[in-house]
Specification:
It is a single-pass type I membrane protein. By secondary structure, this protein is mostly beta strands. Helix content is 9%, strand content 41%. The termini are far apart. The relative contact order is 0.06.
């Protein structure tokens, strides 16, 4: 009864939901709170013995974490830091969990995977810290975020914190089981990301870890700490690929000082197991020693076959071997020993093998094979001492741990074999393996040889040369090495120069002696592929080519060879070092080395083009709906392949300030390679109700509003009939936007085409804004190259955005523009004011004044002002008065 209130949300349906606002649509609604929380979907124990449960279904699959302490449960709540966490539906936070100490500053952290996080579903991993150490408190803050690089890759589906480099800080491993190398005809190969810690930050390790890169394998669906399988002091991991070849596989990777090795150490295939289980590798246990041989063992689940398989680890030994020969050279005409009554040239060969390892037996039996004259396909020049005269011997030896186990073998060489080849040196080859009988049961003491042990060893001796009494020839090798077509140092263009030819020429100076046992070594950069070996052999873990040159190389002679190399995986710069060596004494070593350094550039670009099936349409009062098709085409340019391109498309659907949409997306089609060999495919960020091709109405596509308070259209201010031209784009309408990832673009002929079928409601546009002379419906698209490669553009970059316009033109002549009555009133008032202003200006300028009249009046005033003389007064002369009066009257 005391827990009744805690259980009430699970008992009452009304309390199983929570009212919230959809962050995409802005519409309020109910979401499930705890009902599908799925607590325990993932689980981890921290170093403080806290049990952390992932609950990815909480709050409509937003997800969260739960900490369990004995006697109580605590529900985690994210505290967003700098906006790093934006909680929304279907993030799946807590799909995977782990914990570790990643940096000195952060301390102990909890990691939660969210494989459907980010707007384009690239997935994310949150590194979280507890704000309080109280057992009943479980409030988390975001310390760091790592996001996936490919939409739909399910980055964060699995996580593991493990100190791979043994520097005291945890490294972070993240699985992305749906990561795809290519979209056409495959995908879902899967990938593992390794973030190495240096104590201050987490940095992504170079190189792709993808198992065997098999389509549909979903490599990375499970990650487990396998323990130290090879006993080198660094932890190893196991990675599951449960759908590889429809059955599954598990890959073992070794850790090291520099991080996780990108090449797997072992591949366990379900097809090679009795019964060929299915779903093998979906679940993998951590390493645990179950048979007391000090080596961790693994348990692997095959869910689709209802089986689990225990793999027990065998002890590992590291071996070392070498061959000692008592003579560096010998005379081909001077026998040194007698065998069965015949004279021979005798050479004593001493092969040696040693081994060591942890928790391994003190004695182990080896099976070895010693071969003579292996540089020749058929040996006609000697044999090894044995009951039967044969050039090879196979035998077993019991070796002691930690000791050099050597045995002496005599070789007999026929004298005077100049006619059989006295130029090619005698090479002795030692190969070995463990000798043990086959048995059905598991042998926990039986060992295996580590893969980094060299199990094939060679050494050689040669004939004395014609170099005088000292037997030392003075030669001068002159080396020349160039990449064909790039002799002047021109850069290599990825996609064009995928395979290059290395031309090597060695010449011995004319004034010197013969050069014996001349070799050319080629030091190759990492990730360079060998297309053909010519007369060369791979050495030093495939990082060096050793090429045999004519023996001897006489004075004035030269020899040439060509090696084809693959450079498609090289980044930055190709550096090749070529060195010529000889057993003769070289008088000038300065001309024996060629360093080739060619920059690698990425010359690639993409552009976007758009076209409409109907660019102009005549409409009238009876028009209702029109269906048009807008097609966007992403075009590849230049040589370098481009893996993925993000295509963002926006389609106007509803006028700002209006409720009813004027446009509906009937169909969205992304054409793939099955339709044309020149096209590529892709994937789009649609809702669950949409399909990749031939889609129905995409009601789930979120609308992108340009402002929180949209301004009304011009049609709300002026009568509908007065709208002359209306442009409906994302600045004047609400838009539905969606993103697609397309690619790969492997050559310039590749294109990706997005086709939109738009149903435009003309009658609704007329209802909302009348009948404009022209209505432009504008869809837009932009592209972004997602590859992290820095591309070098040798020409002008191609357009990265475009618009497609379909114009609806009203039938008939353009509508004359009619002014409202108040406009006429304003015009009249303005005219009156203008007239008054003109009159006033003319008045001020004296336009209405008469100058002559003013002058006469002035003269009159002056004459009136002059006093008359006594004898001639106007008042006394009536005639004068009458004449003045007449003048006044005339003036008036």
């Amino acid at each position: 009864m005391q827990h009744r209130e805690e259980l009430r949300p699970l008992l009452l349906k009304s309390q199983q939901t929570k009212q919230t606002i959809n962050p995409v649509t802005g519409i309020p609604g109910n979401i499930t709170h705890y009902a599908v929380g799925e607590a325990g979907f993932s689980v981890t124990y921290t170093s403080d013995d806290e049990l952390i449960l992932g609950a990815p279904g909480l709050l409509d699959w937003t997800g969260n974490l739960v900490k369990y302490v004995e006697g109580t449960d605590s529900l985690a709540g994210f505290v967003a830091q700098d906006g790093l966490v934006s909680q929304r539906q279907s993030q799946y936070i807590g799909y995977s969990v782990t914990s570790g100490r990643f940096t000195e500053a952060l301390g102990k952290s909890i990691v939660a995977g969210a494989p459907r996080d980010t707007r384009d579903c690239r997935g994310a991993v949150y590194i979280l810290g507890q704000t309080s150490k109280e057992s009943k408190s479980f409030v988390l803050e975001v310390q760091m975020v790592k996001q996936g690089e490919q939409m739909g890759s399910y980055f964060g589906a699995t996580v593991l914190a493990l100190d791979i480099t043994q520097n005291g800080f945890s490294d972070l491993l993240v699985g992305a089981p749906m990561y795809s190398l290519r979209a056409e005809g495959g995908g879902d190969e899967g990938r593992l990301y390794v973030y190495k810690s240096n104590g201050a930050s987490l940095q992504l390790q170079d190189g792709n870890i993808m198992g065997a890169s098999i389509v549909g394998a979903r490599f990375g669906s499970a990650i487990a700490h396998a323990g130290d399988l090879n006993m080198d002091g660094y932890p190893d991991i196991a990675v599951g690929a449960p759908y590889e070849n429809d059955h599954g596989a598990v890959y073992i990777y070794n850790g090291g000082r520099d991080g996780l090795k990108t090449r797997y150490a072992q591949r366990i295939e379900a097809l090679k197991i009795t019964g060929a289980p299915r779903g093998f590798g979906m679940g993998i246990s951590d390493g645990m020693d179950v048979d007391d041989n000090y080596y961790p063992d693994l348990l692997v689940g095959a869910y689709d076959s209802d089986q689990a398989f225990l793999f027990r680890t065998m002890p590992l030994i590291h071996t070392n071997a070498w061959i000692e020969i008592d003579k560096d050279s010998f005379s081909s005409t001077a026998p040194t020993c007698n065998h069965r009554g015949r004279e021979f040239i005798c050479v004593t060969v001493t092969p040696c093998i040693s081994y060591d390892g942890k928790h391994v037996p003190g004695q182990i039996e080896f099976l070895y094979r010693l071969e003579m004259d292996t540089r020749r396909n058929v040996s006609e020049r000697g044999f090894l001492e044995s009951p039967v005269e044969t050039p090879d011997i196979i035998d077993t030896k019991t070796l002691q741990k930690g000791k050099a186990n050597c045995f002496v073998q005599k070789a007999y060489i026929y004298p005077d074999i100049r006619d059989k080849d006295d130029r090619t040196p005698f090479e002795f080859r030692l190969s070995y393996k463990l000798s043990r009988p086959k048995r059905q049961d598991f042998c926990k003491e039986c060992v295996v040889i580590s893969k980094d042990s060299q199990t094939v060893i060679t050494n050689r001796t040669a004939f004395k040369r014609d170099c005088g009494e000292t037997n030392v020839c003075i030669a001068d090798l002159i080396l020349s090495a160039k990449i064909a077509g790039h002799e002047t140092g021109a850069p290599l263009v990825v996609g064009r120069d995928n395979v290059v030819t290395l031309n090597i020429n060695v010449k011995n100076a004319e004034d010197k002696q013969a050069a014996y046992l001349t070799y050319v070594t080629v030091d190759l950069p990492e990730n360079m592929e060998i297309v053909n070996l010519a007369t060369c052999e791979l050495k030093n873990n495939n990082s060096t080519l050793e090429c045999d040159i004519s023996n001897p190389l006489l004075a004035g002679e030269e020899a040439s060879l060509s090696v084809k190399l693959g450079v498609s995986k090289i980044k930055g710069e190709v550096k090749i070092k070529v060195t010529a060596t000889t057993d003769s004494r070289d008088s000038n070593l300065a001309n024996n080395v060629e360093d080739i350094a060619l920059p690698v550039i990425y010359n690639g670009d993409v552009g976007i083009e758009g076209i409409a099936t109907v660019s102009q349409y005549i409409y009238n009062e009876t028009s209702e709906t029109v269906t048009v098709v807008h097609s966007f085409t992403v075009v590849k340019y230049f040589d370098t392949p481009i893996n993925r391109v993000n295509l963002l498309v926006s389609v106007p659907t509803t006028m700002l300030g209006k409720k009813d949409p004027f446009l509906r997306l009937n169909r969205i089609e992304l054409e793939d390679q099955r339709k044309s060999s020149a096209r590529v495919s892709g994937s789009c960020n649609f809702s669950s109700s949409l399909k990749k091709r031939s889609l129905g109405r995409p009601t789930g596509i979120p609308r992108v509003r340009r402002s929180a308070e949209p301004a009304p259209l011009i049609g709300d201010h002026i009568p509908k009939a007065q709208v002359k031209r209306l442009k409906l784009d994302c600045s004047e309408a609400e838009c539905s936007s969606f993103e697609c990832q397309v690619g790969p673009f492997t050559d310039p002929k590749k294109v990706a085409r997005m086709t939109l079928e738009l149903k435009i409601n003309i009658s609704r546009i007329m209802e909302q804004v009348g009948m404009p002379d022209t209505v432009d419906v504008v869809t837009s698209a932009s592209i972004t190259i997602l590859d992290k490669t820095t591309f070098t553009h040798l020409v002008k970059p191609r357009p990265k955005q475009t618009e497609i316009i379909t114009s609806f033109v009203k039938e008939g002549p353009p509508t004359p523009y009619q002014l409202p009555w108040w406009a006429y009133l304003l015009i009249a008032l303005a005219g009156i004011l203008l007239l008054l202003l003109i009159v006033y200006c003319l008045y001020k300028c004296g336009f209405f004044r008469r100058k002559e009249k003013e002058e006469l009046e002035e003269e009159k005033r002056k004459s009136v002002a002059v006093p008359p003389s006594p004898g001639n007064s106007p008042s006394d002369d009536s005639e004068v008065r009458r004449s003045l009066l007449a003048v006044d009257v005339a003036d008036d």
